[in-house]
Fold these 2 entries.
Entry 1:
Amino acid sequence: MKRAFVYGISVEGENFTDRVKETKRLKLNFENGINVILISPRRMGKSSIVKKVKSEITNPEIKVVYMDIYDCRSEYDFYNRFATVLMKETATKSEHIIENIKRFLVRLTPKISFSPEPMSDISLSLGITPQNYQPEEILQLPELIAKEQGKHIVVCIDEFQQIGEFTDSLTIQKRIRGVWQHQQNVSYCLFGSKKHLMTKLFQNRKMPFYQFGEMMYLDKISTEDWVPFIQSRFEYQGKKISEELARRICETVENLSSYVQQLAWNILAETDQETTEQEFNTGVEALMTQCSGLFQEQLQGLTSYQINFIRAICNGVHSDFGSKAVLEEYNLGSKSNISRIKESLLDKELIETDADGVYLEDPVFKMWFKREYMK
Ligand SMILES: Nc1ncnc2c1ncn2[C@@H]1O[C@H](COP(=O)(O)OP(=O)(O)OP(=O)(O)O)[C@@H](O)[C@H]1O
Ligand SMILES: [Mg+2]
């Protein structure tokens, strides 16, 4: 089924819009073996763009491998995922997976089950443990495969910030970087949905992955690009939305990719023929309702100081939280409390900071919070 708007999953084909410049740059880096760290706020389109570039690289001498490590909880969880995906994706046919394992991971007796259909349905459990393989041996795998196959391999790792959560993470990071930085035939594209944690891993001089690759920031897709996309999707369904309302969709959610698609879909669903103010508003309401469960959850366990801090931001306070006036007006406790509040809200990904001050990450959260907590 062809869907008019898609959100919540990575998008491809005609559901993917714009990103011409970024796609070109990322592709160039992949083709030239340059490591990339891809950073953006949540749900902006990192996974989508990496998958797109992967699908666009047709040069047979370049192999792009994509893995997601969101569920890896320990160093060896990661090595198992790393090796499994490499074994699968560098095999041209499903039988070759076994050949790959025999060739590169001789000390294992993996469990494999084939489903009759495509490659992705092969379930493979390698069983790598500290008893059978050293970390360095696994980390060196792509280089060995690349050499043997006479290819350049680009390893893309989604939700890479998980690495920072492992026990003894710093040692592990040093180990990984130590091996990867010497590889001649492999490059890496590392990205993840937790911007705050990703920044910690890559932008701090003291961290092993500091300056590991080119930092690419994925900007918002501009309103000029969104508007024709939205309008054409409406037309495709035999409906109409004015340029003015399509623009307002972007403004309402500050051009955050996923929300633009979600809100546009809500409004499309309400519209019979041509979108009016009323359908627009109902769509926005629906968006807040859809998100409210998640938002409630995010607020659970926050202290009243933290809630008050969010209130202050909603009222336009972005800096000087430690001033007497702000401390008193919003009941934020003592001045020394402020950095703690900030740190924990950053960790929860509710706020973000830039040179000008502190902001809420999520425009829909902001609307919802104002309505629920600041009546
Ligand atoms: N180029 C694009 N064109 C149109 N919509 C897009 C594009 N990129 C992303 N989106 C929208 O944003 C949603 C999230 O995309 P994606 O999962 O790629 O983002 P992400 O940055 O990887 O998210 P997360 O931070 O959760 O990992 C998609 O489902 C889609 O609605
Ligand atoms: Mg993603």
Note: The two ends are 42 Å apart (CA to CA).
Entry 2:
Amino acid sequence: MATDTTQSQEHITCDLCVKPVQQFCNSCQVGLCEDCINKHVKSLKSMKHDIVPFTKRTVQLVFPQCTPHSHQRCEVYCQQCDVPVCIKCLTGQHQGHDKVDMADIIATKREKIKRETEEIVAIISKNTEQDKGNENKIS
Ligand SMILES: [Zn+2]
Ligand SMILES: [Zn+2]
Ligand SMILES: [Zn+2]
Ligand SMILES: [Zn+2]
């Protein structure tokens, strides 16, 4: 039995639990660990899931749901309150606030995610090398 001792190799955790993320569902835009893939697919049976290794994930434009208006997608980001808001919020409590397009926010995020993914790949390959090195080292 192979015991996995690669702790803290990633700082990104599964969206459903606290384990390190392994796979990514492109359809739902969620990161999943080995255990949660089945859970995720079972809980959303009616949907198609495009599960890929986390390092190969595709980030898509998925607008978050509005908290007070659960049927609305947030298409705008309120810079003043630092929250995503929907059309209804715009004419309500966020009237007159500074806003940016959600698409711009997501584009920025996507850049960050791309960099993070590259970092993870580098960390994983570095860890693999280190493991080998430690095995050979006898003090
Ligand atoms: Zn999990
Ligand atoms: Zn999914
Ligand atoms: Zn709203
Ligand atoms: Zn606001």
Note: Strands lie at 23-25, 30-32, 51-53, 76-78, 83-85, 99-101.
